[in-house]
Amino acid sequence: MSFQGRHVCHIADMTVADVDRVLDAAERLLPAARGERTLEAAKGKILATLFFEPSTRTRLSFESAMHRLGGNVISVAEPGSTSATKGETLADTIRMVSSYGDVVVLRHPREGAARLASRYSRVPVINAGDGAGQHPTQTLTDLFTIRKAKGEIRPNTVTIAGDLKYGRTVHSLAQALAMYGAEMVFVAPESLQVPADMRQHLDAMGARYRLASTLEEVVGETDVLYMTRIQKERFPDLDEYRKVAGVFRVTPSLLAEGKKGIVVLHPLPRVGEIDPAVDDTPAAKYFEQAAYGVPVRMALLAEILGLKGVA
Ligand code: NCD
Questions:
Q1: Which of the residues 30, 104, 109, 172 has the least number of beta carbons within 10 Å of its own beta carbon?
Q2: In the annotation, is 135 catalytic?
């Protein structure tokens, strides 16, 4: 089914078939994403990015993706510069912005913001992160990286470690991996484990997962190690953050104990979860993962905008 004109607020807004189609298109778009081929498919189309929280990779890769497709970008990267600071509601902001572009990419500190925005928008809304909620396009990038490194998604045991409570990339990824039927291991301090409502949801989906508390005990059975940053900005109390900061660190010696062919992913930014000495090992896939943000977002934008002859 065509994805044209649809919102992507939650990873569950896409089926496995939708995701596969986007990942296949992303594969074909790799040369264009690197600038080796020039496209004009999005000529005359405008992407509006609206970021009410900091971002480097997500915003720039969306903007790069739209430029690579031959389209244009308008952008708010400084939340302080919008009328939100004058008290404008998100609904009003979106009503306006959606009449200035053909697709809106929104990042917002509130969970559910993208879904809310989609109700007021005249054009498709893509969630680029809503508080501790979801980050579906990061998940598409994560899945693409797993496919590139391992050939397929399903046969892998994916260990997701770090902040599983507040980490929105984790919430989208776990649900997607459950859709694909991959096995998951969730490694976190007890206070940052996958929230109960999400576990119930995974159970209802028949997801295969277990919980653990150290990397050492699971690294030997892990095909993909997905590290995440403890989400300092979401802690109501900084003392609570300090108790869990720096609990996990991937080092070359940890990986030496790992399953053969283990790869390490991270949505980035990292703040100490991965020793830089890992960067030069074949296991390190996180910078490649960040680069794949461009072809994956090109593929998604092409689907949503219904662009012809792109991939
Ligand atoms: C993530 C995010 O914003 O949720 N970053 C990203 O988009 N690559 C992860 C994080 O901030 O820890």
A1: 109
A2: yes
136-290 architecture in CATH? 3-Layer(aba) Sandwich (3.40)
* Beta pairing, strands 103-108 & 183-187: unpaired
**Whole-prediction pTM value?**
0.97
Q: According to CATH, what is the number of the domain 11-135+293-305?
A: 3.40.50.1370
**Looking at residue 136, what is its pLDDT?**
98
pLDDT for the residue numbered 135 = 98
Is 267 close to ligand 1, i.e. is its CB under 6 Å away? Answer: yes
- Mean pLDDT, consecutive 10-residue segments, the chain of 311 residues? 92 97 98 96 97 93 98 87 79 95 97 98 98 98 98 98 98 98 98 97 98 98 98 94 95 98 98 97 98 98 94 78
Q: Give the pLDDT of residue 85.
A: 74
Angle ∠(119,44,80) on CA atoms, nearest 5: 50
Q: Ligand 1, closest atom to CA 135?
A: 4
Q: How far apart are alpha carbons 297 and 155 in whole angstroms?
A: 25
- Beta pairing class for 125-130 and 103-108: parallel
Domain limits, the chain: 11-135+293-305, 136-290
Give the full edge-to-edge strand order of the sheet including 157-161: 208-212, 183-187, 157-161, 224-227, 263-265
Q: Is 169 in the pocket of ligand 1 (CB under 6 A)?
A: yes
In this structure, the residue with its CA closest to atom 12 of ligand 1 is 229
Question: Within 13 Å and on the Cβ side, how many CA atoms surround 158?
Answer: 31
From ligand 1's centre to the CA of 110, what distance in Å?
14
Please indicate whether residue 266, judged by its CB atom, sits closer than 6 Å to ligand 1: no
Strand order through the sheet with 103-108: 72-76, 46-51, 103-108, 125-130
Fold match flag (11-135+293-305 vs 136-290):
yes
13, 136 Cβ separation under 8 angstroms = yes
Reading the block at residue 140, the tokens are 């598409």
Q: How far apart are CA 222 and CA 268, in angstroms?
A: 20
